[in-house]
Predict the 3D structure of the following.
Amino acid sequence: MSGVDAVELAVFQSAMHSIAEEMGAALRRTAISPNIKERQDYSCAVFDAAHRVIAMGDHMPVHLGSMPMSVEAAVSALRLERGDVAILNDPYAGGTHLPDITMVMPVFCEGKDEASFFVAARAHHADVGGMFAGSMGPAREIFQEGLRIPPVKLVRGGVVDEGLMAMVLLNVRTPQEREGDLAAQIGACRVGEQRLLGLVERYGVERLGVLGEELLDYSERLVKAELRMLPSGTYEAEDFLDDDGVTDERIRIAVKISVDAGAMTVDFAGTSRQVAGSVNAVRAITLSACFYVLRCLLGEDAPATAGILRPLTLVTEAGSVVDAWPPAAVAGGNVETSQRMVDTLLRALAKAAPERVPAASAGTMSNLTIGGVDAQTGSVFTYYETTAGGMGASAAGDGLSGVQTHMTNSLNTPVEALEFAYPLRMRRYGYRRGSGGEGMHRGGDGLVKEVEMLCDAEVTLLADRRMVRPYGLEGGAEGAAGRAVLREGDEERELRGKCSARVKRGAVLRLETPGGGGWGR
Amino acid sequence: MGEALRIAVDTGGTFTDCVAMVDGEMRVVKVRSTPGDPGRAVMEGVGLLGAGAGVELRHGTTVGTNAMLERTGARVAFVTTAGFEDTIAIGRQTRPKLYAWTQPAAVCLVPEELRFGVPERVSAEGEVLQRPSDAELEELVERVRASGAETVAVSLLFAFLNAENEARVVGALEALGLPLSVGHRMLPEFREYERGSTLVVNAYLAPLMQGYLLGLESEVAKKYAGGTVEVMQSSGGIVGAGLAAREPVRTVLSGPAGGVIGAWEMAKAAGFERVIGFDMGGTSTDVFLADAETGGVRRTNESVVAGVPVSVPMLDIHTAGAGGGSLARFDAGGLLWVGPESAGAEPGPICFGRGDLPTVTDANLLLGRLDEEQFMGGGVKLDAERARECFAARRGGLKSVEAFAAGILRVVETQMDRAIRVISVERGHDPRRFALVAFGGGGPLHACAVARALRVPTVMIPAMPGALSAVGILLADAVRDYSRTVMLPGARMGELEAEFAAMEEVGVREFAGKKFEVERTVDVRYVGQGYELNVVHGVDAAERFHLMHEQRYGFANRERGLEIVNVRVRLRVRSEKYEPVREKMRAGDGAEALRREKQVYFDGAWVRARVFDREKLRAGDEFEGPALVAEYTSATVVPPGARLVVDEFRNLVIGVGA
């Protein structure tokens, strides 16, 4: 153990984790938009000199595997120097989908020419331009989805590049909000930098390097020990997305998991080719889904480091829906396809460990974006929120109702906060009773939400599990499908899972999210 | 005797501590607690301290806390706007554990059959959009009656802007004769889940607390003519028993608040202006921050009590899940973890004779840091041999029992360090400018190590550790808090007079005849932000907000619009300033208190340390570590290189040499 004992490692791990958490606290507290502050849709992480994650805050699982790609992309595209902060969101260069903007900052120790650490802060911005308010609409290519930012320096030697900032802000619908959020992200990186330099002062950069290395080895040991407890073998499963929002064709996610002697290979062979709509996922997201599943196999307090991924071999086919090529549209890959990948991985894993793995959860984030011009104030607004559904049941018991599952855990916007901030009125918010799948253990129920528009608006929905319902396990029934109904005057019409509609003042959208699958007969 | 004496009584698990100031001297009496009927011990203590007519009893109670922890509160009906009945259960739609496929649901004190909707609506502008009919109200009353509810929480959407509908609902429900906890009266603030949750906790505790407090009040009044009862609130201020009975949610952490105020008052009297409090108990550790310049102990309106959000002012106490009884274990990857699992009272640490899993207390014993001769006055035998055997068998890859024990302490101290960082650094305070005030069973054992890690120069172990909570209750100010969400643009900062006046009017009635101070504050944020900062109201409130934002979060934007979210009024009747008797300082080396020498393990080696009896130390005694200062259930560890001075109030003040 290179002279590192269990105690020193525990102290180091705790210190690193607290840095990531402290960055997150700073970001949340200083950001402007409700999506970051109230709903906590962000992640912060610390990386070593070789760009490997050594600590990540307990934030958004969907960011787990994809944050390292951001650091990698920034470092290979730019020569990052002391005091620089890189910004990026291009899914094809270190990003995930355009609303997720990531900042990467190198941390230089006194007298060193190379960065000893990197810190990164990612946040989901409520709008990054493009043809739909909220930048999450049914686009057909990435150019329609919003502003693409390759890795570029937003801050040089501590000074913000005002020209670049102005160019970003000119391309988004709510520039004032974006500016505040971006400033908060830069601030979070600086908090991380300061904390790391403090640790360097205390332990010395060489020692920290040794400890970082040991921490990665430790994570690897942890995962291997867990994988050895699974029966060796190959486990296959498939599941489907309803459609891509452009055509009616179902999209297949297929996976083959091979477990042997503490190693795992995940092969997505047989998965559909990339599609015209926006549910394409870049490989970083696929890696996040695997990361999440491995992380859940471990105990609750195991740190999320790059070491967790060492026993994993991920095989994807370039140009498929789980490893998209430009110029595929990708807004939904991050939020919808990521959930389906987890569903599929779990379905396969259930064959290896039926007593541990739950039935399918809601399987969609039910992304709702409403944008327009507030008739009273004349100002442009964009509201974005995901709505929870039912959790899948398991051998341990019923699934929970109305909670975020798997790749997200973002909070709801309080009804009173929503109505203060936007020209919207909530008519109803409650459980969707009976939507969980029957079984020895019942799946959790989804939620019902009714929103009334107080001005003309553009409503965009990005949701799934309308046709292919959340599966049950061991004989448990499927959870109910999700649905959305728009009422204008006396007219009611069911909306497709992925669509955008211009609606009049007074229109009411009713959103019902899927229930979780049941477990056992 | 017989004059109006002020007596503070703090109910604890084992003892009920009672203190009173008699002729400028603090008198302390401890009686056995009577958990079945806590009032009996209270009355006994009051009697022992010589109460007479007009006695002012001030009480720190755990009746509410225990009911929350043991879930023994009343059957609560939750009444809200129709269509939103489930909001009390949905909460913020998150799962408690991020990486677990199965987990228990978040706590909700209102089962489905006790959630009721009223067909009504008020808009975000305060306009009534829909009024319930009389028939609908009647029906509601019947349904609540039929449900068997013992108490009711009423929280309609936006009633804090316009209470018309909510007042009618309340008017109708009054027919039931049940305790009512009402949003626009108790907590007229926005965010429906947090408000609803707070009202539900209030309703949940109301029947129990009304019975207890009003019973105690009448008993006191019967026995001592003109005697009164007041209660410690979680905010650290005292309030009358009548009000505490109506709004028990405000006293849910009554006991811990006493300890915090006690530690802070003792520190202030000893000349410390900024302190970080460090209270380490058996299963967890509480930390808090206090700064005389910014109004003493920090408070918050966002607490969680026994898993349930509570949004009334509370002392901002941050809890870490590790204490003396916390278990140490290695995980499958070989990392050492301490807590949050605890050995509890049963089986307890290994050295108490029954447990066999290593705890922090065992580690302290094995490293010589506990005084095994006099632990709990010699009442508990500590079995070091047994602990040594278990440690040897479970030490993982660590080379010795000592290395394992020292490792446990280092890991637990790292957690303490982290907890303190959360309340200091993360909120813009540099811990090096503070003194660490340590109490509780484990505080004095670990204080110097934690202080060194944080580069805090001074540690203080307050005098009277056994009665700190009661002392805090005795010395606390009487306080009433009022608040209301207004949601106005920052430009209207000067137009809040009517809002403040209305709240103060209520207070004037409640503080009839007493001399009180008024503190007006506003919760402000940048337009669109989801969190507010509380600043003193006045012409420069906006600038104060920018400065505080800068300090707390690292930036301010004076061009950006402000929003006034809540207005708050705090009425305060100051207690007499605490002037403890000063003992004359005289040069001493603690020789009279020196009991023996023993081997204690520091930094990888055994060294000889002197053991002093705390009770025999006198003002002016001064010595260097390594040393232990032993007291009833704890010991202060003075490491090599640290220097301890007993001050004129018999606090232990240690320069840690950081």
Notes: The radius of gyration of chain A is 22 Å. Chain A touches chain B through 82 residues (CB under 8 Å).
